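Lab notebook, bench 4. The sequencing result for the construct came back, and we need a structural model before the next group meeting so we can plan mutations. Quick request posted to the team channel:

Model the 3D structure of this chain.
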Amino acid sequence: MNKVILMGRLTRDPDVRYSQGESATAVARYTLAVDRRFRRDGDATADFIGCVAFGRQAEFAEKYLRQGTKIAITGRIQTGSYTNRDGQKVYTTDVVVEEQEFAESKAAAGERGTGFQPQQSSNPFQSAPAPSAAAGDGFMNIPDGIDEELPFN
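Done. Here's the predicted structure in token form:
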């Protein structure tokens, strides 16, 4: 089985290109900085992992992903090789993105100063918060007296 799950921040805006031909397909490339669980000598360390997305996933990356955006992706590792201009063989390892989603709220990204601004005026993937949602911690307030109605008392 070849399955990868990563969470990290984009090191720069995605590089999006379109294939040539009758049915042009979007191809987005970006690098994720993924924090390592263990630190060496107290220093934070990260791995920089190249990712490539095709089709609708690439179009999503082009519209909504920016440098500093924290995302979670699932995909598969793909290796390859090519010969560069100097005639040397170069080996590559990328994660082919199958799914990608935001790993923090737009408000948290704004507080961090990532400057996330979608190119479209409305984001169809986010809904308005419920009016009863608490502003501070993101949890909904449960009204008093409702304990008797909950099925898991």
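DSSP finds two helices and six strands in the chain.
Will bring this to the meeting.
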